[in-house]
């Protein structure tokens, strides 16, 4: 892969390199410990007050912080795998089809625009949440905890919490969504590069045998690294699924329980919704692309004119065909995968919750 590609370097800086800086690591550790401490104090407040109304009031911001901390924890544990895998793929010395490379570079430019837009939306959302409003005390549990446990340092603690929300928001965008996209860009380059060589195999049996061996080894290497990344990512699917579901449910309940509090929160809600939709779109598109590429490889193999090949080449072709039968999938469960269908279902589920809550309110 072209190491001088500017778009790829932009991704490398914002998704990988920034988290290798020692100062950034120390800041993340500090804010992680800081917010975990706050979560413990808030749990004690939930238990002490034992009020449904109190839980509904601060539940959304509580679970938002839980989600952000989960992002940091998974970032640390998944970083070695992502960094090592992408570095390994970049080190491959393979012939590159220039036609595919030009197409890839154009696609990479579009995906980099997506990176900039998503990060910009996330930082705008963080800015809106940092800016104080009159009703913050009824929205953010940090304000309640600061008033209850640190009355003398209340303003300092609240502002420190708001400042910490900015880097945590950045991490929640990068991990896991943008890192999945980043890892997939490397795999996509090699998979489709391999496909071009498969499509254009010509010559006698010796030349076809040489091309088949190259493509088979190339595809096996790609398959192993992609499956390794998928296994590493899928470990964290269940925790994200649980926290995300609880968070969505809490936000929906809060919306109908405290509508009067939301009078000056619509800008925050709108920016958060747009950012969440953008992240969901990127995840769904990456998951769908992972599935589609499996079908593309299989289609190319099936359409090869293999009837006149030698017996040894036919056996190698059959081996290649068998290796492509198992589709790449990023699974949430045995029956649910990360793709367009899952994205649509998540949107439907969210609006279903809103609809049910509206009827209950009436």
TrEMBL record:
One of its GO terms (biological process) is signal transduction. Pfam families: 7tm_6. The keyword Chloroplast does not apply. Signal peptide: none annotated. The chain crosses the membrane at residues 27-47, 62-83, 108-131, 156-178, 235-259, 265-284. Its main location: membrane. One of its GO terms (molecular function) is odorant binding. It is a multi-pass membrane protein. One of its GO terms (cellular component) is plasma membrane. InterPro entries: 7tm6_olfct_rcpt. It comes from the Eukaryota. Keywords: Cell membrane, Membrane, Olfaction, Receptor, Sensory transduction, Transducer, Transmembrane, Transmembrane helix. The keyword Membrane applies. It is found in: Cell membrane. Belongs to the insect chemoreceptor superfamily. Heteromeric odorant receptor channel (TC 1.A.69) family. This is Odorant receptor.
């Amino acid at each position: 892969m072209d190491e001088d590609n500017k778009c790829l370097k932009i991704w490398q800086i914002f998704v990988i390199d920034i988290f290798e800086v020692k100062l950034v690591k120390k800041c993340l550790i500090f804010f992680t410990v800081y917010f975990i401490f706050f979560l413990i104090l808030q749990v004690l407040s939930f238990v002490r007050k034992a009020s449904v109304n109190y839980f509904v009031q601060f539940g959304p911001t509580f679970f938002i912080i839980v989600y952000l901390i989960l992002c940091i924890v998974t970032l640390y544990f998944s970083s070695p795998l992502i960094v090592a895998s992408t570095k390994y793929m970049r080190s491959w010395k393979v012939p590159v089809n220039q036609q595919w490379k030009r197409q890839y570079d154009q696609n990479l430019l579009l995906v980099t625009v997506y990176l900039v837009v998503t990060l910009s939306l996330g930082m705008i959302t963080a800015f809106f949440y940092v800016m104080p409003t009159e009703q913050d005390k009824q929205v953010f549990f940090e304000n309640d905890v600061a008033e209850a446990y640190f009355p003398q340092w209340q303003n300092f603690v609240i502002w420190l919490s708001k400042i910490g929300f900015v880097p945590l928001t950045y991490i929640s965008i990068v991990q896991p969504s943008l890192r999945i996209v980043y890892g997939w860009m490397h795999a996509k380059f090699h998979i489709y590069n391999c496909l071009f060589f498969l499509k254009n195999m010509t010559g006698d049996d010796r030349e076809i045998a040489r091309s088949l061996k190259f493509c088979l080894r190339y595809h096996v290497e790609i398959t192993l690294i992609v499956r390794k990344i998928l296994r590493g990512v899928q470990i964290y699917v269940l925790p994200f699924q649980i926290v995300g579901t609880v968070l969505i449910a809490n936000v929906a309940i809060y919306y109908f329980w405290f509508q009067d509090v939301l009078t000056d929160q619509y800008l925050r809600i709108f920016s958060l919704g747009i950012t969440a939709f953008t992240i969901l779109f990127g995840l769904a598109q990456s998951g769908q692309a992972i599935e589609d590429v499996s079908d593309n490889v299989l289609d190319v193999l099936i359409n090869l004119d293999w009837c006149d090949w030698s017996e040894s080449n036919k056996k190698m072709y059959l081996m290649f065909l068998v290796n492509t039968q198992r589709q790449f999938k990023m699974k949430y469960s045995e029956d649910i995968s990360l793709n367009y269908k899952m994205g649509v279902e998540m949107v439907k589920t969210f609006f279903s919750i809103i609809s049910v809550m509206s009827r209950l309110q009436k």
